[in-house]
Design goal:
The structure holds 2 protein chains of 2 kinds.
Chain A (H helix, E strand, L loop, with lengths): L7 E12 L2 E13 L4 E5 L6 H9 L6 E10 L2 E2 L5 H7 L4 E4 L3 H4 L6 H13 L3 H14 L5 H5 L8 H13 L5 E5 L7 H18 L2 E6 L2 H7 L2 E6 L2 E7 H6 L4 H8 L52 E2 L7 E2 L27 E15 L10 E15 L3 E5 L6 H9 L6 E6 L2 E2 L10 H6 E4 L13 H11 L6 H14 L16 H13 L5 E5 L7 H18 L2 E6 L2 H7 L2 E6 L2 E7 H5 L5 H9 L7 E3 L39 E3 L5 E3 L4 H5 L5 E3 H5 L1
Helix pairs in contact in A: 4-5, 5-7, 8-20, 14-15, 14-16, 16-17
Chain B lengths: L1 H15 L2 H25 L10 H15 L4 H19 L20 E3 L2 E3 L10 H37 L1 H15 L3 H12 L3 H27 L3 H8 L4 H37 L11 H8 L10 H29 L2
Antiparallel strand pairs in B: 1-2
Helix pairs in contact in B: 2-3, 2-5, 3-4, 4-5, 4-12, 5-6, 5-8, 5-10, 5-12, 6-8, 7-8, 8-10, 9-10, 10-11, 10-12, 11-12
Classes of the chains: A alpha/beta, B mainly alpha.
Chain lengths: 692, 339
């Protein structure tokens, strides 16, 4: 190893941005050594500087960013001494980058073939015909079906997963030594993500490309990388071999990160998640000494808050370093962060029952003076049936286009159900739009939204927005009384009382989401629909918000419908799970039933697709082929038949599957024989058991 | 002493730089000016008294504006131009000026003294003082221009919100009407409306509203279409709010940014339109001074190079005001793009 030149080496790299407020150090003292063929992961929350590192390696710092110290060596040469011309030749040929948003990386007005061909034409001087042939070969290598057709398509004509494969193909075309991947799968659905991750792993083997993989998802890093850097507030806090770091993390922040993600075994009652207290410091408000000190439970005055901290090697491990002064004094096994166990909540009577709820949209291409045209039907929801009891958490799981948002809209009264019944207590909601519902019915059903940046009106104060709900639902009308309830709600969601006077832009994402929760609970609802309430938040904030939601629910005995695509979160907090695909319920049952065989083939694939940041479990490898079909043109027969590995030709693609019942409440919509379904192996099992 | 003065005045000014005091000051400046220009004759002899509170209000607003926009040179220049004319408008009755309608010495060139009076900007063909006419003339352009723009904005924003938020048939009908109106050349629309209604200040407001509201409606509609998909609108819908509440309290405050920038630009267009209409004889009527009127009246005499100042003075005044509005719009946009 040691006689090889590293592909990339960062030595004491310091990067700053210059703004009106002065110099803001974005990355401080960053070291990285990347050997040929190695994959290195960079993990951290938003604002920790991980993308800045990638941009610095590409030397794309923009006008206001600059490398203020240290060096970046690419194949032994300092990139800072290279001329613009040299850099231009290296970018795209020896170093390539894949960004988060595939649609933003492709030129929407150029054919994919022409865009791909540019790379070899420019960098290798190939003729256009040769370049196109190379492009076609590369598209086949990234497992795209029918490369010829894709070459002659525009980016908007292919799906998001295919676009990302095209971007990866483009990056690989010039045979780069180094591939930078900046959250390449964050914008994609889980089952599509699993395909891209598999592809990235194959590339590493086939091309021997070194990779830097930037992500906030520890599970993805575990599946793709050899080594790992954990970043916090502009500094690398822990570096090491992926197994060393995952099994013996030696920095309190890394430990905190792992404590706040729902790993298998976490449970909302017995082992609740532990959030890291406090918030990421702003770049110009970083504390003296250790940046993590104000949030660290092991903080010691006079040691952690003096001078700049250095990286210390962890004895016994190969090249495992940690930026902590006290890591050798901490008893890592004893001081495991543990949440307090809480008694389980017993569900009460049925609050919400959905029976054969169907929602079809009719898309009529007519206008004011033109009527008729082709009317198409989009079957957004087909015959949904399930029940939710008091104080119970029912999770609705599915990927984009599965109809979960439509279902929420029908429930909230923004759309009418085409058929079937939705009963809240003894009120039928399916055909009752929100302006016909009485105040108490509306107040009983509230919602927590996904996007923290959208959930609050930026023009009104926090107190005003919560107060409006209280007045609207007639909880109180007296000014002083309303004010008092607002204060109490802010206490409940653990926000300072003076936030009532603030505008949303003065709040962080997690704080906004807390206000959103306070607003939803302001009218004392019976049922709360939470539409991916934590998926847009940083990992350490996610845990805090999830716990808060659970605590309020526990206290008020609220029924919660938790809509999510993330099975690990769902496993942690749901009592019952409903798995949806293209508008239909494919499987439903208790959490234990869903996570153990028999599975629906889709559930099985979904379970296998979710990356798990735990080296102690082994996961079966299932990658679905293809993409999710469009809900306006679903496959005949079973909607999952186009991607199902168990597909029975002539049956699954023709007839609708029957509902197989496995005991009370556990149902699977599948053509497979119940015996065959029962024989399935568990997707996730402890590694020790797997070795036997 | 001076240092302590500044320190004492800083918090006072910062306290004023909030929405409510600024709106109060704007009203304090605007309402007297509007009352004076529109209803001055009915108020009677002491009409100029109403302008008294407007003068300090204008000065304070100018200082506040400079403080708020000090980071953008463009905005500061624009603000200075606009406030120069505003200050002239509110203080015209108190300035030591000659009567703008009194003929004294015809065809006096600038910087000359005749009949014991020194004429800075000369006199026009009837012998009326150009400086005085220029300063008095800005009142009518400003008041009618801003009023017309405001009315056009209220109408345009209302239809835009309805069309964007409610969609469906509302949108079809409103958009269709807007398209019909937009298909007329603006001048043709003005001339048709004013010929039909007769030339007067209020009818100019009607004409400008017809001409500008469709474009404003389109901007607001586009913004509303975007904002109505936000979760906070969804939240308001799911708690059973009335559509009117959602339009006014949830949508309107969040479309104000782009609208304010556009309003500054549109103030410039409206000023051009009003001046042009007066020039064509369709707008405000003589004898009271008005820039458009001044250009019209002196158009023939100013053919002679020696008397070109009669044309240049009002023309440069109009240009400086429009430039002021446009620079302010640029500055606002620049400020909104930062951070």
């Amino acid at each position: 190893m040691s006689d090889q030149t590293p592909v990339l080496e960062c030595r004491n790299l310091c990067i700053s941005y210059y703004t009106r407020a002065g110099e803001i150090p974005a990355v401080v003292d960053f070291n990285l050594k990347l050997m040929p063929g190695e994959a290195h992961g960079i993990v951290g929350e938003s604002g920790c500087g991980k993308s800045t590192v990638a941009l610095a390696i590409m030397q794309y710092m923009g006008k206001n960013g600059a490398i203020v110290g240290g060096e970046i060596l690419f194949e032994g040469r300092d990139m800072r001494t290279m001329s613009d011309e040299e850099l231009r030749r290296i970018r795209g040929s020896k170093i390539a980058m894949v960004y988060q948003e595939p649609m933003a990386s492709l030129n929407p007005s150029m054919l994919i073939g022409a865009q791909l061909a540019e790379v070899p034409i420019y960098h290798d001087g190939l003729s256009e015909a040769d370049a196109l042939r190379r492009a076609e070969e590369m598209l086949a290598k990234v497992r795209l079906p029918d490369p010829k057709r894709i070459l002659n398509s525009y980016p908007h004509q292919i799906s998001g997963g295919q676009q990302q494969r095209v971007v990866i193909a483009m990056a690989l075309l010039s045979n780069p030594k180094l591939l930078l991947l900046d959250e390449p799968t964050t914008a994609l659905d889980v089952t599509v993500e699993a395909g891209i991750v598999e592809l990235i792993n194959e590339i590493a083997e086939e091309f021997g490309t070194s990779m830097i993989y930037i992500s906030h998802n520890l599970g993805l890093i575990l599946e793709t990388c050899d080594r790992l850097t954990v970043m916090y507030s502009g500094e690398a806090v822990e570096v090491g071999d992926i197994h060393d770091v995952f099994e013996e993390m030696r920095h309190p922040y890394t430990r905190g990160l792992f404590g706040s993600i729902p790993l298998p075994g976490a449970d909302k009652n017995a082992h609740p998640l532990v959030a890291i207290p406090g918030q990421l410091p702003l770049p110009h408000e970083r504390p003296e000494g250790c940046n993590f000190a104000p949030r660290c439970t092991f903080f010691r005055d006079g040691l952690c808050n003096v001078g700049a901290l250095k990286m210390h090697p962890v004895p016994g491990d190969d090249d495992h370093k940690v930026r902590c002064e006290r890591f050798q004094e901490i008893d890592w096994d004893r001081d495991l962060p543990k949440g307090e166990a809480k008694p389980p909540v017993l569900p009460g009577d049925t609050v919400l029952s959905v029976e054969n709820m169907t929602k079809h949209y009719i898309i009529d291409e007519g206008g004011l003076f033109v009527s008729g045209g082709d009317a198409r039907t989009v079957k957004a929801n087909e015959k949904l049936s399930f029940e939710a009891r008091e104080a119970e958490t029912v999770a609705i799981v599915g990927e984009s286009g599965c109809g979960k948002s439509t279902f929420a809209k029908v429930l909230m009264g923004l759309e009418d159900a085409t058929d079937g019944k939705v009963m809240l207590g003894d009120v039928e909601l399916g055909a009752l739009p929100v302006d016909k519902r009485d105040k108490s019915t509306i107040a009983k059903l509230q919602m927590v939204f996904q996007n923290p940046f959208d959930t609050l009106n930026p023009s009104h104060t926090i107190g005003g927005q919560i107060g409006r709900v209280i007045r609207k639902f007639g909880v109180a009308s007296d000014e002083a009384e309303v004010n008092e309830i607002v204060m109490r709600l802010l206490d409940t969601v653990k926000l300072p009382r003076d936030f009532a006077k603030r505008k949303p832009r003065q709040l962080s994402g997690g704080q906004k989401q807390r206000v959103g929760i306070a607003r939803a609970f302001a009218g004392n609802p019976k049922v709360v629909i939470a539409d991916e309430p934590v998926s847009a938040l940083d990992v350490s904030v996610q845990a805090a918000v999830t716990e808060l939601l659970m605590d309020i629910q526990r206290e008020n005995r609220t029924t919660m419908l938790f809509i999510s695509h993330d099975l690990s979160v769902v496993r942690y907090l749901a009592d019952r799970i409903v798995v949806m695909y293209l508008g239909r319920i494919m499987e439903q049952g208790t959490t234990e039933e869903i996570f153990a065989p028999p599975y629906h083939p889709y559930t099985e694939a979904l379970l296998a697709a979710v990356p798990i940041a735990d080296t102690r479990v082994e996961k079966r490898h299932i990658v679905l082929k293809g993409e999710i079909p469009s809900p306006s043109n679903p496959p005949k027969g079973c909607p999952f038949s186009t991607r199902c590995p168990y597909m029975i030709p002539g049956t699954c693609d023709v007839d609708l599957p029957p509902l197989r019942s496995f005991g009370e409440g556990h149902g699977i919509l599948c053509h497979l024989d119940p015996a065959e379904l029962s024989k399935m192996e568990p997707v996730i099992k402890p590694r020790a058991q797997a070795a036997e | 002493m001076a240092v302590t003065d500044i320190q004492a005045s800083q918090p006072f000014l910062s306290r004023l730089l909030r929405p409510r005091p600024v709106i109060a000051l704007l009203l304090l400046m605007w309402l007297p000016l509007m009352a004076y220009v529109m209803f001055g004759k009915t108020i009677g002899n002491n009409a100029q008294m109403v302008l008294l509170p407007a003068i300090p209000a204008t000065l304070i607003l100018y200082i506040l504006g400079i403080r708020a926009f000090r980071e953008s040179w463009v905005a500061v220049i624009g603000l200075t131009l606009v406030f120069f004319w505003l200050l002239m408008a509110v203080s015209a009755p108190y300035l030591p000026l000659l009567d703008p309608n009194k003929p004294i010495a015809p065809f006096t060139t600038p910087f000359t003294e005749r009949k014991d009076v020194f004429f800075w900007l000369g006199t026009d063909f009837k012998g009326r003082d150009m400086l005085s006419r220029m300063i008095w003339g800005c009142q009518r352009v400003l008041v009618w221009g801003v009023t017309a723009t405001l009315v056009a904005y209220v109408v345009g924003a209302l239809f835009g919100l309805i069309s964007g938020y409610l969609s469906g048939w509302w949108d079809e009908i409103i958009s269709f009407a807007a398209n019909v109106l937009l298909s007329f050349p603006v001048m043709v629309l003005f001339i048709v409306i004013l010929n039909y209604l007769g030339p007067s200040g209020f009818n100019i407001v009607v004409a400008v509203t017809f001409a500008s509201a469709p474009a404003i409606m389109r901007i607001v509609r586009g913004l509303a279409l975007d904002i109505k998909t936000r979760d906070y609108v969804f939240a308001a819908q799911t708690r059973g709010e009335h559509p009117l509440y959602i339009m006014i309290f949830e949508l309107l405050p969040n479309v104000r940014g782009p609208i304010i920038v556009d309003a500054c630009l549109r103030l410039g267009y409206t000023t051009v339109a009003i001046t042009t209409l007066t020039f064509l004889g369709l707008g405000l009527q003589p004898p009271d001074p008005d820039w458009g009127l001044m250009i019209r009246e002196s158009a023939k005499t100013a053919m002679l190079w020696k008397f070109s100042y009669m044309l240049l003075v009002p023309a440069l005044s109009v240009s400086s005001l429009i430039l002021g509005f446009n620079l302010m719009a640029d500055g606002l946009r620049e400020m909104s793009l930062r951070d």
